[in-house]
Specification:
The structure is a homodimer.
Chain A: E1 2-8, H1 14-27, E2 31-37, E3 43-46, H2 53-57, E4 65-70, E5 73-78, E6 81-84, E7 89-92, H3 103-110, E8 115-116, H4 120-127, H5 129-138, E9 147-150, E10 163-167, E11 177-179, H6 185-193, E12 198-203, E13 209-217, E14 221-227, H7 237-243, H8 257-271, E15 280-287, E16 290-297, H9 311-318, H10 333-349
Parallel strand pairs in A: 1-2, 1-7, 7-8
Antiparallel strand pairs in A: 2-3, 3-4, 4-5, 5-6, 9-12, 10-11, 10-12, 13-14, 13-15, 15-16
Chain lengths: 351, 351
């Protein structure tokens, strides 16, 4: 199978996407075709053996073939016209804006390119932390309490400190601050509003236990091991960034079988049908033996490959279980019937 | 100002979009540039004076210039290469799939074409009736009770009849049935599942009062009059279709000023910030003096022009208040720092 890796994008997580893309070379057996989206949202075909991080930061990638998106795929110009880039399935591997906010999903769906990754709705729900909470509550999954605040609104709000402040719509810990007292609030809000027009404010629970579980649904659910990620206060961008280049297996979290089973049941409540076609990572909290969803990552860093015993097998299996779109056949029923009615009118009412 | 009307799309509401597009000629003073998306998702530039419904149903549109989407706009080939289609702002006028489900918004945002219309998140929330309910509840707006059912799930469900069954993700009354007794349920579900993999089931409230209010936010809220749409049991596709070609003003609903004010306050709760940049129509129910949101139409048929006393003024004002995207500047901070670290490593650890 030929897998088209779509990565990059105009996003604060552009660099993380490059790292994830490089990691795929190490962990996937399929033939990989690399399609890079630069900060200008131009697509380039990067030869697989030329993939390394410096190629992008130096701008060298610009010497490779520029691609155009059209119905059915990505196309490169050649002497006789243009040629479609040949791959069977795309893997959306762009984190953050463009990749996870629904834009890449829309492009791929619109141009009818089959792909692994969240669909538009799944992207909107998981990219927006407020929508994730709405969605989780709807399906009976607990989330931490929260308030939202819009840019420009009064900051005169009642909070019980410490709180954690996050831009509503970013991943990878960018723009996130822990605020321990009122005096620190303004600065933290300024930081978060650099990245989004809305922030979400949650109680900061010290020493909360965090557990990550990845998975997807093929003909059955395929789950990773449960990981308890290392952290200081919380994983900041630099640490998460390093995290994303991981390919080594991690040790399973020290949890009872019963609790692991409960995490899987919670994952299932969130997964289907919204996330069909995607391999996601759910980041859970456990507080007083209760499970809370913190975040749903529909395109986890390096696809959370290190959590699976056979990642290659899971991903290639998923490519056989992608959701299909409702069939829409061309029809002009109403316009035609209006035309007919007009014709009749003419016949009966003019001489 | 030159306004680019983007219409059509691969959608059950393709024809309605054509009608809406034709109506714009009658109600807008701006110079209009028509860009048609056919059922194959190919874009064509249709000369404004050639716009009529038959042009599309006959396939004649194919003789006009085919367009390609690239960064900054739509491009047409010419002898020396290609030329960007010249307009200032686009108006997304495609109803249903493609137009209202987030795909067109994504294309326009990704390729950095300023536009009037819902952004990706707004599209996902309003296109999906379940998400609309989640969203409304979150912001303190009442909705009717409901159940959802996925295709293939057991149909052995407890319901209090009559109920109304709707595909979760379609507009314009397509696939909707009123079910008066258990025996009719199966057929109604079959119909709805033709159009979506999930249905939403609500109590059917006979003689419920329905009120439509359109509006948008510029430097202030711009509201239409409140309309009480005519209906039998409910507006079916044919009636709504005819409705969409309206340009005549309608009469204001017979409601107290207090209730009209309440409808506007409810509209505001739903509008901001999610629907910034769009002119939407909220379809409300009033039951026992309480307001319920039934549907949010982020691209109402013919832009609900007939509800405004000066539609042209409202729409052209809105083009000056479009939301902007968070600035993302190219940076390779992390990759560069890794390169530097590797360099140092080399320097210190090799001879």
């Amino acid at each position: 199978m030929k897998l088209g890796i779509i990565f990059g994008g105009k996003s604060f997580e552009h660099e993380i996407s490059i790292i994830s893309a490089i990691v795929m070379k190490k962990v996937l057996k399929a033939e990989l075709i690399y399609i890079f989206c630069d900060y200008n949202r131009e697509f380039y075909l990067i030869p697989t053996k030329k993939i390394n991080s410096k190629r992008f930061s130096s701008g060298e990638y610009k010497k490779y073939k520029k691609l155009t998106l059209k119905n059915g795929g990505f196309f490169a110009k050649n002497i006789i016209g243009e040629k479609k880039i040949d791959f069977d399935i795309a893997l959306n591997l762009s984190h953050g804006a463009d990749g996870e906010d629904g834009k890449f999903s829309s492009l791929l769906e619109f141009f009818e390119i089959p792909f692994v990754g969240p669909r538009v709705e799944a992207s909107s729900i998981s990219y927006n932390k407020l929508f994730t909470k709405m969605y989780a509550k709807e399906f009976g999954v607990k989330t931490l309490d929260y308030k939202t605040l819009n840019k420009g609104s009064s900051r005169n709000i009642e909070l019980e400190y410490p709180v954690i402040i996050k831009p509503t719509r970013l991943g990878s810990s960018i723009g996130i601050s822990i605020v321990k007292k009122k005096e620190e609030l303004d600065y933290a809000l300024d930081v978060a509003f650099e990245f989004d027009t809305q922030v979400i404010i949650e109680p900061f629970v010290r020493d909360v236990k965090e557990y990550n579980l990845s998975g997807c649904k093929t003909d059955k659910y395929e789950f990773s091991i449960v990981e308890e990620p290392k952290k200081d206060e919380f994983l900041d961008f630099d640490k998460k960034y390093l995290d994303f280049s991981r390919t080594l297996r991690v040790n399973e979290a020290d949890l009872s079988e019963e609790m692991k089973e409960k995490l899987k049941e919670t994952f299932k409540k969130l997964y289907e049908p919204l996330f069909s076609g995607s391999l996601i990572r759910c980041d859970f909290f456990i507080l007083d033996n209760e499970i809370y969803i913190n975040e749903i990552n529909p395109i986890p860093g390096s696809m959370a490959n290190y959590l699976f015993s056979d990642f290659d097998k899971v991903l290639s299996s998923l490519t056989n279980f992608l959701p299909t779109c409702t069939q829409v056949l061309p029809q002009y029923k109403y316009i035609n019937s209006i035309q007919v009615a007009k014709g009749k009118n003419g016949k009966f009412h003019t001489k």
